[in-house]
Amino acid sequence: MNELAARVGLAGVFALWFALVWRARPALRHSQQRGLWLTVLATTIAITLFQPGIVGPLTSAGLDVHTVSLLRNLIGVLSAGLVLLFVVDSSGPPRLRLCAAVGMTAALVSLLVLGLLHLGTGTASAQGPASAASAYWLILIAAHLAGDAAAVVVCWRYSLRTTERDLVWSLRLFAAGSVLALAFWSGYLWHLYDRVPRLLPYLTMIMSVHGFLRAASLLVPTASALVRSAGALRTIWLLWPLWRDLVTAVPHVALAGPRRSRLQEVLWPRLPPALQAHRQTIETYDALLTLQQYVRPDAYESAYRYARRAGVRDDRLASAALAGAVDQARRAVLAGVPPADPRPLPGVTQGSPGTLLGIARMWPAMTGVLPCPDRTSPARRH
Description:
Elements: H1 2-29, H2 31-50, H3 52-60, H4 65-89, H5 94-116, H6 135-161, H7 165-193, H8 199-249, H9 262-267, H10 273-291, H11 299-309, H12 317-334, H13 353-366
Helix pairs in contact: 1-2, 1-8, 2-4, 2-8, 4-5, 4-6, 5-6, 6-7, 7-8, 8-10, 8-13, 11-12, 12-13
């Protein structure tokens, strides 16, 4: 268990440092994110100095266990104070923020004095407390419990009020991490009064998972951006065959012609994925509007009957009929058939992305199923 806890702990530390480095530039630019970033930074340093795999090399390099433990605990209380200031700053009056700052300062000074005097800090273990009567450990644990309890209440309450999805998840993940921190320090308090050595590996595991949650709370905007990019790339991929064929027939609607393959369009987009997907959606819709001048009166109904006979699912029949009618109109343009009065196609008047993707899914199966009128075919309806 000790070995597993140490490995998970190191993984949590790497996750935290990765999240800090990855989010440093955007977080430090915005005052609303700066406080969260600094809070997680202090927590990360404290958790790093908590790991046996980190403490061992430091002591081998010449630092004594007492110095490492004191430094870790001072930074830990600083992180707890920053958590308290972070949540109070968003919910409380200035007087409350002042009280939190004074309390954090008093706790830090008390721990520093007691630590320098070697009163109650102990040197027997890099992680374990020393004395049940130690004010040092009581101040340390009380500071952490106060900061994490406030974080749980405030973060969860604000997550229920906001409608911004990224903020909701950041707050809830931060609150979940604070719940684990409460469990850790409550277990530590138990160990302080009733020595339970077998409890320490489990506490290390709890603190490590807490680190993963803190890292996740920072990476929520990154994860959301990745999800949006993946959705945009999916739209580009699905829409590409339809978009390529339509802008080839109606080239004036496209800002740039299609590449030779959709793999190129996805792997090396000429624009950011979201903008590329939006552009292709708009161009596909504009091409559909132009092609309505070439839709034959019975095209939609004929394509619908064909799709039903071919066994297309009921929920895709409308998309299949649109695909067949649009393909016939596209081939009419390529054949040089003169335009007629526009005939609106059902469901595409608003350019719904869902409708366009539905047509794109059925495009390969419905291409070429309707006859294409030639130049001599009557184009206009009388």
